[in-house]
């Protein structure tokens, strides 16, 4: 038997990282977000290679557990896992035994028994990943839960901003649209605020989120007038407007929304000349954003998608070594 | 628990100059050569070697950087992951002669990871290895082509290479660590 084992020589470790799960980014520190940026940058180099694969997560099993339809998030996670050499299983809850009435907790028990190391989960109920995290030893990554949170989207948005601006502190961000029903907006409000960015929300008062300035969301500015909101902004994020909102009585008409809140070239001109335009997708061109802006020079919508894979690779890497808390 | 200094600034300078001469001697086609520094301290060492080679032979040598974190064989057993740094290989390595540069050669596992990482990036003509210190205790069949100094050491000692670029001072020291069972 060996009595002396050689201590691994690691010069710098991810001491800032303390997450076993990624449920939201409301509990991320600035140091953790910066570590995600640094790791993402290295992952982008891997993605630039002719052969985009590293052996890092060999032998790890990652399950994509999706209770809600998703194209880009699921694809993005699947590619991220594959590029890191993990084994990936996609479980579409609509066609699995969930459709036969299996509960979330039972499904998690099955995944645990099958040896899942990381479960990437999307669920239509806010808070579902928090319940999941209590019933499984694997790491849970929230890929969107109800209206609550979408932390990996917020991190890729932040990274896209960081790539262009480097120094985030003191920047001015505007989020326009249906903020109340947007998990992307909620997670972005946390992430942007943590990085010292001033956030202004711009939307009809009926679509403002609940709990602003309290425990549920940090304090932000509210400016319902889009021209005033965009004044000297460094980043503008528009959100997809779901047509059901009109039926639910929160909006008088889509036409009125377009008149008051669509991001057009003329309105974007109020922001700084180098302001970036982000959109979490899928885009409703001609509704929340004009086609000219969506495809314009300031739009980074396609970069967001590309960065999504690198950010998720970084997060899977950082999670893969975390110990159960 | 006192540290013992093995090399000071002058020693490191002289040693690197000697390795630079050896690299020139062993590589007729210097313009086909790329020095690849392994993060963290291999990077400044590679830069210094390239400057020496340019000084002695008048040929400018490309210096790239390599991070091995994603290729380590102990990732699942490490509680804290290494911070992944940027791998920056600017031109193709196909057909090139590569000199990997690292500060300390120990078990050989880092170099195994570095070779795997390099081979994922292309098909170099050859890979050579230059290290400032070889402290023994190899666990893999790996040896260095260029060794600054052989320092026979015990596993209970730490060999600490400090460089101006990363640590503010040029120095190689042995630091005894308390010999605990299972360390």
Compile the SSE list and pairings:
The complex is a heterodimer of chains A (325) and B (183).
Chain A lengths: L29 H18 L13 E6 L5 H12 L3 E6 L11 H10 L4 E6 L4 H8 L3 E7 L5 H15 L6 E5 L6 H12 L3 E5 L18 E2 L3 H5 L4 E4 L5 H4 L6 H8 L3 H4 L7 E3 L12 H4 L6 H20 L5
Parallel strand pairs in A: 1-2, 1-3, 3-4, 5-6, 5-8, 6-7, 8-9
Chain B lengths: L3 E5 H18 L6 E6 L3 H16 L4 E5 L30 E9 L3 H13 L4 E9 L11 E5 L6 E6 L1 H4 L3 E6 L7
Parallel strand pairs in B: 2-3, 2-4, 4-5, 5-6
Antiparallel strand pairs in B: 1-8, 7-8
Helix pairs in contact in B: 1-2
CATH topology group of chain B: Rossmann fold
> What's the order of the H and E elements of chain B?
EHEHEEHEEEHE
State the strand order across the main sheet of chain B: 3-2-4-5-6
CATH architecture group name of the largest domain in chain A: 3-Layer(aba) Sandwich
How many E strands of chain A? 9
Q: What portion of the residues of chain A fall into strands of 2 or more residues?
A: 5-15%
How many domains of chain B? The number is: 1
Number of DSSP E strands of chain B: 8
Strand order of the largest sheet of chain A: 7-6-5-8-9
Q: Tell me the structural class of chain B.
A: alpha/beta
**Measured distance between first and last alpha carbons of chain A:** 31 Å
Give the N-to-C terminal Cα separation of chain B: 17 Å
Question: Quick recap of the structure?
Answer:
The complex is a heterodimer of chains A (325) and B (183). Chain A is of the alpha/beta class and 325 residues long.
Structural features, described:
The complex is a heterodimer of chains A (325) and B (183). Helix content of chain A is 37%, strand content 14%. Chain A has helices spanning 30-47, 72-83, 104-113, 128-135, 151-165, 183-194, 226-230, 244-247, 254-261, 265-268, 291-294, 301-320, and strands at 61-66, 87-92, 118-123, 139-145, 172-176, 198-202, 221-222, 235-238, 276-278. In chain A, strand 1 (61-66), helix 2 and strand 2 (87-92) form a beta-alpha-beta unit. In chain A, helix 1 packs across helix 12 (301-320), helix 2 (72-83) packs across helix 12 and helix 5 packs across helix 6 (183-194). Residues 1-5 of chain A have low confidence and may be disordered. Chain B starts with a strand and ends in a 7-residue tail after the last strand. In chain B, helix 1 (9-26) packs across helix 2. Chain B has four helices and eight strands; from the N terminus they run βαβαββαβββαβ. In chain B, strand 4, helix 3 and strand 5 (126-134) form a beta-alpha-beta unit. The mean pLDDT of chain B is 93. Helices cover 28% and strands 28% of the residues of chain B. With 183 residues, chain B is of the alpha/beta class. Chain A binds chain B through residues 3-15, 17, 35, 38-39, 41-43, 45-46, 49, 51, 53-56, 59-60, 84, 314, 317-318, 320-321, 323, and chain B through 39-41, 67, 69-72, 74-88, 104, 106-107, 110, 116-117, 120-121, 137, 139, 155-156, 181-183.
